[in-house]
Write a structure and sequence with these properties.
Order of helices and strands: HHHHHHHHEEEHEHEHHH
Number of strands: 5
Strand content: 5-15%
Helix content: 40-55%
Distance between the termini: 62 Å
Shape: globular
Number of helices: 13
Structural class: alpha/beta
């Protein structure tokens, strides 16, 4: 009979409810300072090292339900070990997707280079852990050691982590609401103002997700008025935690029969070359795709002028032979072209803001700094 993990799911839910009660009663002082000091470093790094929090919760859960298990032996292949990955996949990840979707892993926290490494989490071997932030190796090993030896209250530790995650989510919700309110203004906008706003936003650090959201927001507007998209289906934007991630590009449009119709793939600071075009041909073979955009934030768009001329001839040949239209272009040029067909720029700004918020709630690709920067850009455009 298949094990259903219902007990483990209920345990996490129970401790989460205790965390909410602790916050409601303003009783965080009841949590030992050692627990706070041991955990806070991981909370502070959650934007860049979110998998570790999930790993710690999975380890705490295992120790609570099976105290005799050495949680440092996180793989079944270790003598006397257990599969932390299975527990995380079946229990912790779905729990995170429900309660803290922004910080949830797509399948499991045990797929990063560090967490899948065949290294026992003790002080002797653990120093070799390939964590992204080297400064977290020692705090991680120390916390795992405390959980294993139960030198801290492991139930309080789990509750405290949940309180901090809830506080983060609540504070973000306040910022998200404020951002939506700021964006809902009636000042007159034109294409030049909107382009300046977007270009400033795209110039933020770690901004590769922002052009994808902008193009998607434009398509949501175009679907209201462009005849080409009658009866077509604009699929929801993929986020990395989606279980049903689509198979072609960043933005996908299906036809009335729900078959792929138009695809947009967006590259960040990568020039378009002939190999990308040939990959698209291969990927689109035996599909119903009619048009495939490959867009880039790379300043000059193509590797060089010779490559651009070659690609122009290549895509013409492909269209004649297969009927597939491939369009390679820069993000800024494409956004500016598409905005000409948008009837209400204020509505577009609202849509872009809403999609930013939606993405930020469900993944860490849109950073808090991106939301704050957009707030400032919108306020300065009022």
């Amino acid at each position: 009979m298949k094990y259903n993990y219902q007990q483990e799911i209920e345990i996490l839910e129970n401790y989460y409810q205790q965390a909410l009660e602790l916050l409601e009663n303003q009783s965080l002082t009841e949590i030992d300072e050692e627990i706070k000091n041991s955990v806070d470093v991981f909370i502070q790094k959650i934007e860049t090292d979110k998998s570790l929090i999930q790993v710690i919760i999975t380890s705490l859960l295992k120790k609570i339900i099976q105290p005799e298990q050495d949680i440092r032996l996180h793989m079944a292949k270790f003598p006397n070990g257990y599969s932390a990955r299975v527990l995380d996949t079946k229990v912790t990840t779905p729990f995170f997707k429900n309660k803290f979707p922004r910080y949830a892993n797509k399948e499991t926290a045990f797929l990063t280079k560090a967490t899948r490494a065949e290294i026992i989490w003790n002080f002797e071997e653990g120093v070799k852990l390939p964590l992204r932030s080297k400064s977290l190796i020692e705090p991680f090993l120390k916390l795992i050691d405390k959980i294993e030896n139960q030198s801290i209250d492991i139930e309080d530790c789990l509750i405290y982590i949940f309180t901090q995650l809830h506080i983060i989510i609540q504070s973000q919700e306040a910022v998200f609401t404020e951002t939506l309110e700021i964006a809902d203004f009636t000042n007159t906008l034109n294409i030049d103002i909107v382009m300046k706003m977007l270009e400033r936003h795209f110039g933020e650090p770690l901004s590769s997700r922002l052009p994808v959201i902008a193009i998607y927001a434009i398509y949501k507007q175009l679907f209201k008025s462009i005849r080409r998209f009658e009866n077509k289906i604009l699929l929801p934007l993929n986020v990395h935690t989606s279980a049903d991630k689509h198979g072609y590009g960043d933005i996908e449009i299906n036809d009335e029969n729900n078959h792929p119709f138009e695809i947009l793939e967006i590259k960040h600071n990568i020039p378009i070359d002939r190999n990308m075009i040939l990959d698209i041909v291969k990927k689109s073979a035996e599909t119903t795709i009619k048009r495939y955009y490959i867009l880039t934030t790379y300043k000059d768009c193509f590797v060089n002028q010779n490559e651009e001329e070659y690609i122009k001839q290549l895509v013409l040949k492909i269209k004649k032979e297969t009927g597939l239209e491939i369009i390679g272009n820069g993000i800024i040029n494409t956004v500016k072209y598409y905005l000409r067909f948008v009837e209400d720029y204020n509505e577009f700004i609202n849509t872009y803001t809403g999609e930013l918020i939606r993405d930020a709630k469900n993944s860490t690709e849109v950073k808090d700094a991106h939301i704050q920067a957009w707030q400032m850009i919108v306020q300065q455009s009022l």
